[in-house]
């Protein structure tokens, strides 16, 4: 049986004036894909090519830093710290920016990686640095710092816009606009840079990332057009995602599934490396802070009794590291499913 293809949906900004006929078509395609597969490919023009090039170049810069610098990226929140080449996933390395849509979040991370002693600076300062005569290590660091933080902030904001467009479609289609706006107001974006090495020789294990569902509310993935991501259908078939230019993979996480009372599917996925090219990808993971995850009343009726108790997203993240959470085959269900 040939596996189905993922829907490729046009999210060109000019077609997305809310409630226009093209918006309504896009909305129904997106809803169908989220309920059936929990994922679709958005062709999105909110990230111009120059920014796309800049963010992948910034990604290379951060992975090229010495390991002793990268490990400085720690976090109190599970799965938010630097993770590098573990025995279970030796090809995979990742590092992330918490609160990536805020200048503070991005500057905090950038200073950890390229400590420069400078607060914030703009184009005038960059011009000064580039034009000052003496090349120095410090000058080089300042340029990296500036370049990295500007690209990360702009990329994160552009991807957040896509998240908001998708969520407003979900809201309109379920008639839960108010709850959705509250949720958007409590959404925190974590931008992660990911790098996968090629497996050693032909017999090397090509596993880039183990099969899992995401612990986020929503994840938006973007790669530098190197294959590897695979999505499992509800029927158990693996679909290989074809990387396309200007495409963003919009995927529901466990928390979106629970919030929607199980209407939206959170798909299992993995990364299998092929060929001899390293793979760089970016993931923007949305978490909900300071607001209980509560199924909107409109999604509960006689045919759809509530399936999940209210819960706090960050407490759920901590639960994942408990022995019960680690053992569970489906932690979101063992954490808050109503039996
Ligand atoms: O690199 C990718 O395309 C997928 C990464 C992923 O699934 C994750 O970080 O949760
Ligand atoms: Fe994932």
TrEMBL record:
Gene3D superfamilies: B-lactam Antibiotic, Isopenicillin N Synthase, Chain (2.60.120.330). One of its GO terms (molecular function) is metal ion binding. The keyword Iron applies. Keywords: Iron, Metal-binding, Oxidoreductase. Pfam families: 2OG-FeII_Oxy (PF03171), DIOX_N (PF14226). The keyword DNA repair does not apply. Residues 192-290 form the Fe2OG dioxygenase domain. It comes from the Eukaryota. Belongs to the iron/ascorbate-dependent oxidoreductase family. This is Fe2OG dioxygenase domain-containing protein.
């Amino acid at each position: 049986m040939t596996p189905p293809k993922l829907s490729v949906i046009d999210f060109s900004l000019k077609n997305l004036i809310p409630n226009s006929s093209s918006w309504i078509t896009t909305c129904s395609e997106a809803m169908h894909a989220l309920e059936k597969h929990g994922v679709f490919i958005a062709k999105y023009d909110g990230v111009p090519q120059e920014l796309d090039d800049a963010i992948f170049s910034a990604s290379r810069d951060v992975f090229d830093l010495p390991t002793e610098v990268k490990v400085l990226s720690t976090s109190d929140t599970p799965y938010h710290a630097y993770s590098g080449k573990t025995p279970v996933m030796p090809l995979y390395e990742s590092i992330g920016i918490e609160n990536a849509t805020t200048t503070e979040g991005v500057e905090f991370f950038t200073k950890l990686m390229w400590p420069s002693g400078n607060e914030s600076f703009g184009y005038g300062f960059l011009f000064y640095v580039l034009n000052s005569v003496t090349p120095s290590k410090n000058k080089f660091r300042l340029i990296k710092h500036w370049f990295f933080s500007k690209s990360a902030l702009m990329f994160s904001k552009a991807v957040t816009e896509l998240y908001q467009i998708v969520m407003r479609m979900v809201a309109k289609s379920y008639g839960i606009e108010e709850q959705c706006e509250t949720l958007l107001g409590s959404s925190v974006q974590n931008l992660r840079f990911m790098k996968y090495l090629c497996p050693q020789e032909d017999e090397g294990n090509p596993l880039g990332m183990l099969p899992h569902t995401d612990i986020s509310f929503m994840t938006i993935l973007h790669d530098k057009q190197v294959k590897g991501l695979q999505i499992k259908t509800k029927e158990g078939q693996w679909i290989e995602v074809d990387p396309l230019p200007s495409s963003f993979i919009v995927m529901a996480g466990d928390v979106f599934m629970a919030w929607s009372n199980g209407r939206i599917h959170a798909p299992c996925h993995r990364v299998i490396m092929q060929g001899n090219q390293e793979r760089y990808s970016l993931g923007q993971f949305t978490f909900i802070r300071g607001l209980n995850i509560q199924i909107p009343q409109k999604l509960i009726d006689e045919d759809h009794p509530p399936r999940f108790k209210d819960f706090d997203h960050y407490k759920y993240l901590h639960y994942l590291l408990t022995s019960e959470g680690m053992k569970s085959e489906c932690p979101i269900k063992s954490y808050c499913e109503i039996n």
